[in-house]
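Chain A, query sequence.
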Amino acid sequence: MSFYDELGDKYDLMIRWKTRLERETPFLQRLFGENRIKRVLDLACGTGHHARLFHNWGCDVIGYDASSGLLEIARANTPEDAEGIEFIEGTFAELGERIEGPFDAVLSLGNSLPHLQTRDDLRGLLSDVFTLLRPGGVFVFQNRNYDRLLRTHERFLLPTTYRAGGNEQLYFRFNDFEGDKVRFNIVHFRRVNEAGWVHDVYSTDLTPWKQHDFEEKLRDAGFRVLDFYGDFSGTPFNAETSQDLVGLVRKPMAKPGEEGE
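Chain A, predicted structure.
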């Protein structure tokens, strides 16, 4: 995925990982404990922060991503002797061919699923996730709340900064609303000594999936227990006000006589 390959190590400098993981961890730890999760697929794992977190909790983890650049960083930041964690390159469309289940949990965090461009793409991925889960396994995904964004056309995210020594960088993110797509843009500013600021622009098209899109395609895939939250505090999803859409869905348990089939 060229957008993320071009970002490379700038991706980690842009995201406040410590704050983000502190916010998400209580929800995820409770989920892992209640469901006795031991084998995890981190779908669209990026530079591997979540994968390493789950591995530190004692899970066997596969991190899967389309960006060779981000996976190179993920591997470099993971101890070579770490057992039970592996990073595999592949697209959403290749998931069913490249990854073998079953998993106790599949997670896709950080607004990754909007990179799926068509309803058939979304349907195919959710079907593959369903197949890879064990009966009773859970799928967790997190996206921006496009129900709200498509109504408000809210364009700008809070900028983030990075400073180390004399190095200063600024990341400015904004959306363009173009028909049935959202153009996501990152402007990366960096201060170059007396020359002042220089900048690069990175852009990619996203599909603004709404809650009802997910609900329909999840049920088509076979998921039956669907919960939607507005954030990782467990607040119920509100299409008008929630910042995010966090989905927690479960593959039904096998019926008597179906085990092993």
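The chain has two domains: 2-148+209-250, 151-206. Residues 5 and 83 are 26 Å apart (CA to CA).
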